[in-house]
Sequence to fold (215 residues):
Amino acid sequence: MCNPGNLKRVKKLLAEVYLSSLLTALTFDDVVITDNFNRKKLGQTWVADPEYAIVNNELKNTASASSWGYLAVYAGQINPGTVSIRWSATAEAASIRQGGLALRLDAAKTNASGYLAYIDSDNHLQLWTIVNGGLGYQVESLVSAIAAPLPGEVFRVALSSDGAGHHFDFYLNDQFAGRLRDGAKNECNGSCLYAVVFLRGNLNNDVDDLVLGKD
Fold:
């Protein structure tokens, strides 16, 4: 006759194995991740500064300081080939131009280093470094013929890397806006690179949806 205590331990072990397998599957390179933030809390697949919260089913930086330095990392996907966000329909145009994508992060930590990609109010495509979770230095900028993003629009960056550097292809609503690159590959040349958002605080630059793709 099976011991009830042993049966309980077996069930717990099986549950732990299933959860471990599920989390491993979520970190495969070829999995497409989508997040619409339709819940109360970010959850265990996110590593974010405490100022980030889900408010009205959107990702919000609740910081009262109007400064950079607030990083939110999605830890459930590594090496995404593309990263995109849909700005909130109720965000302010000037605010979403002071926020963007954190890319090629070297760790799923709030003090990670990598790159910031965004489009500013002057229609400049901007590529900066992120150093230890804070804003670093400008790598490159480019005036684009594409208008600066508006509330409700989708901002996407496709990533690639070769002997000429790390490349960042900017898209707005699937329209190509331009390519920036770091020819020196100054940041994050390892594997298991993470991404998501870097939003300036004390602004209405909420994010409605997120997609991390394989290419």
Notes: The radius of gyration is 19 Å. The mean pLDDT is 88.
